[in-house]
Design a protein that fits this description.
This protein has about 160 residues and is α+β, with helices and mostly antiparallel strands. The chain has helices at about 20-40, 55-65, 75-80, 130-135, and strands spanning about 50, 55, 85, 95-100, 105-110, 115, 125-130, 140-145. The protein has one domain: endopeptidase domain like (from Nostoc punctiforme) (endopeptidase fold (from Nostoc punctiforme)). The protein starts with 19 loop residues before the first helix and ends in a 12-residue tail after the last strand.
């Protein structure tokens, strides 16, 4: 009698929502984004800045996401075109939040707070979505899950 080796191949099937492991990876990446952004609290604001020596809002978002391998444009309105929309009550750490007709954005950290680089003379800081100005100028949010690692920056 001759025994032949048998190979078994398992094929996974994922729904349109993504598998549990994909979702776990998205959550881990979101938390990594928050952890990286928190390292820059206190960095100076600099118009057009995209490095720890000085950030503007979209420059901070771009820099932090680059650290997890995602290249974004250096413009809040262009960043808003990416990912998928998220309602304010469904925000998760790492989501992008937008204000003032897409002229300002930041990274959601959880508990109604976000990290951003606001304006000249200020530093990277955490703010609340419920503060009057941010609540009144809310423009939307985006989740950057299931994105390719490199996104055309259109610059």
């Amino acid at each position: 009698m001759v025994l032949l080796p048998i190979s078994v191949v398992f094929v996974a099937c994922a729904s349109g929502q993504g598998s549990v492991s994909d979702r776990s990876a998205d959550v881990r990446r979101g938390q990594s984004v928050v952890d990286l952004a928190e390292r820059h609290i206190g960095a100076p604001y600099r118009w057009g800045g995209a490095s720890p020596s000085g950030f503007d809002c979209s420059g901070l978002v771009r820099y932090v996401y680059a650290q997890v391998g995602v290249t974004l444009p250096h413009n809040a309105a262009r960043q808003f075109r990416l990912g998928r929309p998220v309602s304010r009550d469904s925000l998760e750490p790492g989501d992008l939040v937008f204000f003032d007709r897409l002229r300002h954005n930041g990274i959601y950290v959880g508990n109604g707070r976000f990290i951003h680089a606001r304006q000249a003379g200020k530093r990277v800081s955490i703010a609340s979505l419920d503060e009057d100005w941010y609540a009144a100028h809310w423009a939307g949010a985006r989740r950057l899950d299931r994105l390719p690692r490199s996104i055309d920056s259109e610059e």
